[in-house]
Amino acid sequence: MMRAAKPVVLPVTVPQIISVGLPPEQHADRVTSEMIEFIVRLRAAVWAKGEATLPPSAMGNPTSQARHVARLRKLNGALWPFLHLTPGKRGRYTLELIEITGWDGNAYRRIDAFDDIAELPSRLWLYVEHIRIVGRPNAEPEGSGAGIVWLSHHALSRLCQRCNARRPRDLIVATHALVSAVCEAETDNILPRPVTNPAGHRLRVELGGGLGDCVAVFQRHERLLDETTPVCVSILPPNADLAASENPAGKSGFNEGESVWSSENKT
Asked: What is the model's pTM?
């Protein structure tokens, strides 16, 4: 938690979809990549300031812990949809948070805020993780994490095409809604973990932020077989049948019959 991050310069222009009506697929695919990259670089820029760490000097007692965590909440904003502190004395505390970050679909790994991200993959995903940090007296805090959901490039592009998401903030708003839907569905035993149906599991989601409703399709990661974290592989219109598969039985793809995992799509 104490490593120094490399300086990151954000693009001056915030990417956005500009179209009359819903955008065509190729335009949405291209700008979606730019928006995901913007979000990944925004997260890295926050950490590069050096203020997003948990130095022992700022976490010694409940008062200083609450003050520093309030600063972190303001600093990270929408990239931390959930943040909860259980304070303690003499450097003891537990911090639970949910973080939106990037995922390298080529290397199958989370993009760390301290990575050299000068060259990012052409088709990024978003990855949402639950992180638990435990403070210890006179020692570095211990951290552990578990995935909540992956959002594939294909799903985020479909979000732009079908729900009129046009800016990075729209993707973040939709991500908040999808995270809440996944957590609630798993708590209610509606969404299995892992998703075992090859056709995927569907949830109706109220996206908020003027984006309307949608039906999100979740599958198990086809390559990381030890992972039970669901992957949002497509976004369908709100009137889509919750019981049906978008493609014929036995096909796992959501792009005109091609697999969402294929090297051509990289999604």
From this structure: 0.83
